[in-house]
């Protein structure tokens, strides 16, 4: 009997749960003209939403088409009804929830809140309730999911009682519908009109004033007239409503939907991970197991390759033959599916496994709802591929790619382009790369484009980042060096920031295809955590050893200078003058020489700063570097050091530097100080230092294996002792004039600098420049990010021998492994205009006004020339 009761209990529970889950969502869209829609309906808004149903005038549901407010029983003239937020709201939700969305849209333009309230003489409340009940009678499986509200313009003057009246309206609707916790989501009205300020303030308080309520921001949205959002903004507003509903309701969306939402948001900075041939390091490539492993580790996209059998079945296979990856041989098109299914897959070591070659259909079903599939080698039989996508219900998970011209793709595959994701491929080493890129963006508007370039000397990746901003995602392959300018998986194994980090931070990559997906995912988690560090930032002011002056041509946005031990021993320095900004990093002394208690690194830094302070505004890089060299050389002569330092380069006063010249609009990089110029990042790390850092790490690892502790090594660093003689000897490489000497590097040391070794970067139209010493393991575009990354290294790797390999770590009593200097400046752009052109712009015609402006411009020019331009 007990078993029967348990069975009945489980049966009833299951039935109740299934009935609850069977409810379809009904959304009630109310408000005034922006909800009813006044934005122009464009071609992109004309398609019917098959997964969205709209209640019509007869009380039946039909496929939703714009304008959505045409069936409202309180609307104004039909000709006034255009595009509102409901279209993209419902479309986004149906895609994310993979379910049909039902709508009742009942809005009326130019209507104050009070007219919508219960028992008002206008009767809009009762008419709206009638339509909602119509919908519930038509579909008994419907349940109201939320009220979507956009109204307020008509209450811009009568705003005092807005929240009280809205609270009453919402309470009445919830009561009459029998859902006391029915979510209520309001949208901000446009921010462009100063007359809206009071009502905007009231609307902002809705989430705090009404239970179970949310607010959608209108920040960044634009208008077509005094009251109404434009088409782009209405689409965006709808997406924001959908996002807010998902947040409030806490409804779960599938993993695939989450991936697609990032993929279809061109401004998303979250990096998607694509696994090349699946997780082939732990399973056979192009196997179901490789796909499943990739899904389990959190991959977003799995790349697979297609081939076709003799009897026309599509299978997963990369090579033209079966020989390498299976126990068979010959071409797949010479074998039937049954024959291929009798084979076994081989793993990466060519060892036979128990696994079989999968069909594309099996792969699609394995991936369904969990991950996207990037189909390679599939265009030759895409019609057949699409039949399988329709059969398995997986059109939403496939990415197709090709390097065919945009017009050819549109001609041959146009009927599929709104059903599957198409991704073009562009080789940036080809002459017509930019033209092809622009063609793809113009003709196909893809969500992502895959790029490749062989060497870092190619400037196009930086141009691509600008072109693609806000339009499409950038995809790079890190499979081997010639696909990503050397920033591949192997590079990332040695230094993830110089591999993956470079592609993400410098080139704007938001999709990376890798042969090491687990490694990349781990890096992204680490990077996200590091960049989101929560710290007490007051030390950035209290411990800062540099106060930036105000200068006319650029603004110091952020600066920080701190010695690893004390301000007196700090060998890093910053200087800001009317025409120059610079960071100078004095090198750690390799001799015992001191002058007035200062070591050679500190002296080199101070001498360089003195020289820069006296630079004429239009000096070029060669002359500037020569003046710093002369300053140091003269010091040697004055103190009878020249002969000794000629003979023993390791004792020279040495400094690295990075200098911004306003007049030249250039950045000059001497040695391994770092800089960011717009999208360009240059660390300029010396190859010889990387070798020494690895050698130091090995010696210290051996010491740890022999029983030493991290604290022991902070007091006594055997790795540093081991490389120290080499550090002294490598001074012969600085400013080395020998052609093609691979380890040569430039420094300020009082002897001639080889200009071929100096980086001269044009600033162009970049608005910001960041300069820093190598006291930051990796330079970011904000001080907080740079400090967060440094703090993470110091916490996890204080000896700087694992996560970040350096020639020195933290010594006992020091706060960091090195002194550090950071300077971020914003350049003031001056736009010169012909006087007559200016007067035309200002609609000024009289001689008196013309003369007055001419006098002002002359004075302004004098200020600029004198370097006394005020910040305004």
Report on the architecture of this protein.
- The chain is of the alpha/beta class.
- The protein is built from 29 helices and 28 strands.
- An eight-stranded parallel beta barrel has the order 8-9-11-12-13-14-15-16, surrounded by six helices. A seven-stranded mixed β-sheet has the order 3-2-4-1-5-6-7, with helices on both faces.
- Helix 16 links the parallel strand 14 and strand 15 (473-477).
- Helix 3 packs across helix 8 (231-249).
Task: Write a brief structural summary.
By secondary structure, this protein is α/β, with parallel strands linked by helices. It has 29 helices and 28 strands.
| Largest sheet features | 8 strands, parallel, barrel
Structural class: alpha/beta
Low-confidence stretches: 1-21, 831-835, 841-846, 857-872
Mean pLDDT: 90
Number of helices: 29
Instruction: Indicate the radius of gyration in whole angstroms.
Output: 33 Å
- The termini sit apart by 87 Å
Helical residues, percent = 25-40%
Amount of beta strand: 15-25%
Shape: globular
- The side-by-side strand order for the widest beta sheet comes to 8-9-11-12-13-14-15-16
Number of strands: 28
What is the topology?
Layout: H1 2-22, E1 24-31, H2 33-36, E2 49-55, E3 61-64, H3 86-97, E4 101-107, H4 124-138, E5 142-150, H5 162-177, E6 184-187, H6 197-204, H7 206-209, E7 213-216, H8 231-249, H9 255-263, E8 272-276, H10 288-297, E9 301-308, E10 314-316, H11 337-341, H12 360-367, E11 372-376, H13 382-392, E12 398-402, H14 406-413, E13 421-427, H15 433-443, E14 448-452, H16 460-468, E15 473-477, H17 489-494, H18 497-505, E16 511-514, H19 517-531, H20 539-542, E17 554-562, E18 572-576, E19 580-586, E20 594-595, E21 598-599, H21 600-613, H22 621-638, H23 642-647, E22 655-661, E23 666-670, E24 674-677, E25 680-682, H24 687-705, H25 710-715, H26 718-729, E26 759-762, E27 768-772, H27 783-796, E28 820-827, H28 835-842, H29 847-866
Helix pairs in contact: 3-8, 10-12, 12-13, 21-22, 24-26
């Amino acid at each position: 009997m007990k078993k029967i009761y348990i069975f009945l209990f489980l049966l009833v529970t299951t039935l109740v749960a299934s009935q609850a889950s069977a409810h379809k969502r009904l959304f009630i869209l109310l408000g005034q003209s922006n909800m009813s829609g006044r934005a122009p309906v464009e071609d992109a808004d004309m398609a019917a939403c098959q997964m969205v149903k709209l209640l019509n005038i007869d009380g039946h549901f039909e496929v939703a088409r714009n304008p959505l407010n045409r069936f409202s029983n309180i609307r104004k003239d039909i000709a006034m009804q255009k595009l509102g937020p409901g279209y993209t709201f419902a479309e986004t939700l149906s895609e994310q929830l993979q379910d049909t969305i039902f709508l009742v849209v009942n809005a009326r333009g130019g209507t104050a809140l009070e007219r919508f309230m219960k028992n008002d003489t206008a009767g809009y409340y009762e008419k709206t309730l009638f339509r909602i009940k119509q919908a519930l009678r038509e579909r008994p499986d419907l349940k109201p999911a939320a009220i979507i509200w956009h109204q307020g313009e008509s209450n811009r003057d009568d705003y005092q009682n807005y929240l009280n009246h809205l609270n009453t309206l919402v309470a009445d609707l919830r009561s009459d519908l029998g859902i006391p916790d029915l979510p209520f989501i309001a949208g901000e009205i446009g921010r462009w009109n100063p007359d809206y300020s009071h009502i905007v303030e009231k609307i902002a308080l809705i989430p705090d004033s009404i239970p179970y309520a949310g607010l959608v921001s209108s920040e960044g949205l634009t208008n077509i007239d005094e009251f109404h959002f434009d088409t782009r903004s209405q689409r965006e507003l709808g997406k924001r409503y959908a996002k807010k509903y998902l947040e409030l309701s806490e409804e779960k969306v599938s993993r695939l939907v989450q991936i697609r939402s990032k993929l279809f948001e061109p401004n998303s900075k979250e990096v998607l991970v694509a696994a090349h041939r699946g997780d082939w390091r732990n399973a056979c490539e192009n196997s179901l197991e490789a796909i499943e492993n990739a899904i389990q580790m959190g991959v977003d996209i799995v790349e697979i390759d297609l081939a076709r059998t003799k009897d026309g079945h599509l299978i997963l296979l990369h090579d033209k033959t079966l020989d390498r990856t299976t126990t068979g041989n010959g071409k797949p098109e010479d074998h039937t599916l049954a024959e291929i299914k009798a084979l076994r897959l081989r793993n990466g070591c060519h060892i036979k496994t128990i696994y079989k070659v999968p069909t594309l259909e099996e792969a699609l079903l394995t991936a369904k709802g969990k991950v996207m599939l990037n189909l390679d080698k599939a265009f030759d039989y895409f019609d057949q591929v699409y039949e399988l996508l329709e059969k398995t219900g997986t059109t939403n998970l496939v990415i197709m790619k090709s390097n065919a011209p945009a017009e050819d793709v549109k001609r041959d595959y146009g009927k599929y382009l709104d059903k599957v994701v198409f991704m073009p491929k562009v080789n940036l080493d080809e002459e017509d790369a930019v033209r092809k890129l622009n063609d793809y963006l113009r003709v196909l508007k893809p969500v992502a484009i895959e790029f490749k370039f062989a060497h870092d000397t190619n400037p196009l990746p930086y141009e691509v980042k600008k072109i693609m901003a806000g339009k499409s995602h950038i995809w790079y392959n890190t499979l081997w060096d010639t696909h990503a300018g050397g920033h591949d998986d192997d590079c990332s194994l040695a230094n993830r920031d110089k591999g993956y980090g470079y592609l993400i931070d410098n080139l704007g990559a938001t999709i990376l295809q890798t042969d090491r997906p687990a490694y990349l995912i781990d890096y992204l988690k680490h990077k996200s955590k590091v960049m989101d560090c929560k710290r007490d930032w007051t030390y950035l002011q209290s411990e800062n050893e540099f106060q930036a002056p105000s200068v006319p041509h650029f603004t110091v946005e952020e600066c920080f200078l701190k010695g690893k031990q004390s301000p007196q021993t700090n060998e890093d320095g910053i200087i800001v003058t009317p025409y120059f900004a610079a960071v100078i990093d004095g090198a750690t002394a390799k001799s015992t020489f001191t002058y007035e208690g200062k070591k050679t690194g500190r002296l080199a830094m101070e001498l360089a700063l003195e020289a820069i302070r006296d630079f004429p505004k239009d000096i070029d890089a060669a002359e500037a570097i020569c003046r710093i060299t002369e300053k140091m050389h003269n010091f040697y002569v004055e103190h009878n050091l020249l002969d000794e330092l000629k003979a023993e380069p390791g004792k020279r006063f040495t400094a690295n530097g990075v200098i911004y010249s306003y007049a030249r609009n250039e950045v000059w990089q001497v040695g391994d100080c770092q800089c960011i110029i717009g999208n360009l990042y240059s660390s300029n790390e010396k190859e010889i230092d990387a070798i020494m850092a690895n050698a130091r790490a090995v010696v210290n690892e051996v010491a740890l294996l022999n029983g030493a502790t991290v604290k022991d090594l902070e007091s006594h660093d055997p790795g540093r002792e081991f490389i120290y003689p080499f550090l002294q000897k490598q001074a012969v490489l600085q400013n080395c004039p020998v052609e093609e000497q691979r380890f040569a590097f430039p420094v300020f040391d009082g002897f001639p600098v080889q200009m071929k070794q100096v980086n001269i970067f044009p600033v162009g139209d970049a608005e910001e420049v960041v300069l820093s010493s190598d006291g930051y393991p990796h330079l970011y575009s904000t001080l907080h990010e740079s400090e967060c990354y440094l703090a993470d290294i110091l916490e996890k790797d204080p000896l700087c021998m694992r996560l970040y390999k350096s020639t020195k770590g933290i010594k006992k009593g020091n706060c960091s492994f090195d002194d550090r200097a950071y300077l971020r400046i914003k350049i003031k752009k001056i736009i010169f205009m012909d006087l007559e052109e200016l007067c035309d712009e200002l609609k000024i015609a009289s001689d008196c006004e013309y003369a007055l402006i001419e006098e002002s411009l002359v004075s302004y020019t004098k200020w600029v020339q004198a370097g006394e331009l005020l910040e305004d």
